[in-house]
Specification:
Layout lengths: L7 E4 L5 H12 L3 E6 L2 H13 L4 E5 L5 H14 L5 E4 L14 H21 L1 H7 L2 E6 L12 H21 L4 E8 L2 E2 L4 H4 L2 H10 L6 E2 H12 L10 E4 L9
Parallel strand pairs: 1-2, 1-4, 2-3, 4-5, 5-6, 6-9, 7-8
Bound molecules: NADP nicotinamide-adenine-dinucleotide phosphate (NAP).
Length: about 250
Amino acid sequence: MWKLDNKKALITGGTKGIGRASVVEFLQLGADVLFTSRSEEDIRAFEKELSEKGFKAHGIEADSAKKEDREKIKNWIDKHWGKLDVLVNNAGINIRKKANDYSEEEFRKVLEINLIAPFEISRLLYSNLKKSGNASIINVASSAAIQDVGTGTPYAMSKSGLLQQSRSLAVEWAQEGIRVNSVSPWFTKTPLTEGFLHNEEKMNAILSRTPLNRVAEAEEISSIISFLAMDKSSFITGQNIIADGGMSINAL
Ligand SMILES: NC(=O)c1ccc[n+]([C@@H]2O[C@H](COP(=O)([O-])OP(=O)(O)OC[C@H]3O[C@@H](n4cnc5c(N)ncnc54)[C@H](OP(=O)(O)O)[C@@H]3O)[C@@H](O)[C@H]2O)c1
């Protein structure tokens, strides 16, 4: 059961960071993988890199926030797989500002990609997930869902909303054989956080709050996503696994 053999898995935002590490790990564990990104060029480059390593995954250029793009994903799954065993709602963005500095468009964009799109994708693919009989949705939230970690309010709101989305769908869809869980990473080395990783003052502040005294590698998050996708985690639903090097239990 420590494998994903023959599981059909969709990973949104699969070309960089945590999503990319998840695509690789899922393939290593035997899954068939479909991934998305907004860049056709990045998709083709990643497909090529994977095929040179002996893996085959398919990428679709699709913006999670666009209805017509989400339908493109659904059409591909209907045509090639019918069922869907694993959905990883990973694609996410951030715009960091003080609350009063956001334009309405910026604020709504963060919510659209991080919170609304996972709900729309999960609903759109519900019939495919139901067909699996043993499906798992994993929503990638954040430490920012639980505490203020200086990410800006819209990001924090979007991720805390995503945690409750996971819990509510976990209850609603349990009888259909669909589990829904979240993973909440703290600072992880990816293109999203690159700016901070080279900022000594910011890094010192992050490390001083983190008992393990380092940030995470993307593979330390994809391993949790893989576990939640597996049948090994079959009695876990509606939960949030926090991967933060001890940051949230460090009071002093
Ligand atoms: N890194 C961290 O420290 C950290 C901590 C907590 C939570 N997280 C969460 O973990 C998830 C992944 O973060 P990451 O650090 O790996 O980010 P990343 O390095 O910026 O990668 C994000 C991936 O998502 C894709 N993407 C972004 N917006 C998209 C959209 N609208 N539609 C489709 N694909 C989209 C990106 O490709 P394109 O740009 O080409 O579309 C890219 O492949 C996010 O939900 C993030 O909020 C990250």
